[in-house]
Amino acid sequence: MPIIPGGAPRTPDVQVGPVNLAARVNEALAVQALAFGLSEDEIEVRRHIVLRHTMYPGCRALAATTGTGRLVGFVYGMPNERSHWWSTVVEPYLRATGTDGWLDDSFAITELHVHPEFQARGIGRALITALTDGAAQPRSILSAIDTESPARRLYRSLGYEDLARQVHFPSAPRPYAVMGAPLPLRRVE
Predict the structure, then answer these.
(1) Peptide bond into 116 cis (omega under 30)
(2) Contact criterion met (CB below 8 Å) for 129 and 185
(3) Half-sphere exposure of 156 (CA within 13 A, CB side)
(4) Is the separation of the CB atoms in 74 and 19 below 8 Å?
(5) Consecutive H or E run containing 59
(6) C-alpha–C-alpha distance, residues 184 and 187, integer Å
(7) Neighbours of 179 (CB within 10 A)
(8) What is the pLDDT of residues 126-150, one digit of tens each?
(9) Residues 6+ apart with CB under 8 A from 25
């Protein structure tokens, strides 16, 4: 798998490159389940969502794999559309903060997960920067659990700022923050 520009992981045996997410959905969801704490039922629901997303125009995915081909992280996203379910949920929150314009001409990061054994090695940073470097849109938008976490610190270091907080998704037990950043993402100096 070729290395994609955008930053290299600090683990020499891990490379970032394109992935056929539909073909490797089980491996990706196994990583997400460990990183995000998903139940078997949640994994099954997400499998259908991921497979549907892979058919959206402009959906792109990258994976972090070891030299043996083991998938240890993945990211995928697509050009945002106001008609997408995610946008319909977050739009009222963004409108309340005067930031709903971010739903237009943005590249949405749908999922970014790294296996816990491989976290804090620059893999998440390499995945998201490589994915957004290929986006035609001038900015990126995403949602993350609204708590101080390594993920939120990563996003802030890349230039993402809070657009709305305490966003409630149906069936999600915790509130989320919606974050946006201009592209290209900020690099570590």
Answers:
(1) no
(2) yes
(3) 10
(4) yes
(5) none
(6) 9
(7) 24
(8) 999 999 999 999 999 999 999 999 9
(9) 47, 50, 51
Give the model confidence (pLDDT) of 24-55 as tens digits.
999 999 999 998 888 888 899 899 999 999 99
Q: Which of 97, 52, 99 is nearest to 78 (CA)?
A: 52
Secondary structure (H, E, C), 72-139: EEEEEEEECCCCCHHHHHHHHHHHHCCCHHHHCCEEEEEEEEECHHHCCCCHHHHHHHHHHHCCCCCE
CB 99 within 8 A of CB 180: yes
- DSSP 8-state assignment for residue 56: S
Cα 58 to Cα 137: distance, rounded to the nearest angstrom: 11
Please name the residue that has the structure tokens 């998440």: 124
Q: In angstroms, rounded to a whole number, what is the distance separating the alpha carbons of residues 13 and 62? A: 16
Q: Which residues of 62-100 are buried (b: 16+ CB within 10 A; e: fewer)?
A: bbbbeeeeebbbbbbbbbbbeebebbebbbebbeeeebb
Predicted TM-score of the model (pTM):
0.92
How far, rounded to the nearest angstrom, does the alpha carbon of residue 79 sit from its chain's CA centroid? 13
Where residue 171 falls (left for φ over 0; alpha for ψ -120 to 50; beta otherwise) is left
Assess contact for 80 and 141: CB atoms under 8 A.
yes
- Which residues are CB-contacts of 153 (< 8 A; sequence separation ≥ 6)? none
